[in-house]
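As noted in the main text, all predictions were made from sequence alone. Below is one such record, for Cytochrome P450.
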Amino acid sequence: MWGVTQANMHGNRPTDALEDTNPILINGKPLKRMLVEIVAIILTAAVSYWTYVSWIYTYWKRKNVPYIQPSFPFGNIENPLTMKSYIGVWLKNIYDEFKKRGEGVGGGIYMFASPAYVVVDPEILKHDYKLPDTDIVIEKGTRIMISTLGLQRDAEYYPDPEKFDPERFSDENRKSIVPFTYIPFGEGPRICLGMRFGIMQTKVGLTALLKNYKFSVNKKTTLPFEMNRFSFTLLTTGGIWLDTEKVKN
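Prediction:
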């Protein structure tokens, strides 16, 4: 806790004049001196951060990402984040800018060193699309949804998919996983921002539970599991019932 006292109004030290004009002490330091130190720290941090932002701007320019600007503090995503411009209008302006400059169908914006949004020419989405190496044609305007359950239970990518085998995701085996076949958090530029936090939270929770309790399957649980086909997330029909037993220390 800071201690605030009244300073001595007299003295012969060179710094006495400064202290006499401001007799408030905080932890033994004159208030004015502390303010100078605080301002110096803030200025140093601001200069360092601005240098970093400028470097990021140069980084994306080297990659030929169009329509970026070194705007403080969040690159050129600052306006929609602070609601200075309606996001729909803002994205349309970006698209119009691409068309005017003739810079092709894509561009991007950055937040620090990571791309925050990639713009694709809307005209591309107005035509039918034929899936490569197939006779399947997706007509324009069709809404599609990727079945993560089907994809992640496909024996072509995961042999014996119903088997609980954590070793599938070991450091050694992870290299053999076909990209985009395991997407519990999505993938690409729109991957879930909370992925790392969610994984960490799950590990901490499991560690705390398994340290203190033993778990076994209750007879109310239907085996083998039957997945709920009408759920947006992975849920079993009837739920999973567990019995718990306190671990004796």
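The longest strand covers residues 114-120. The mean pLDDT is 70. These features were considered when defining construct boundaries for the mutagenesis experiments described in Section 2.9.
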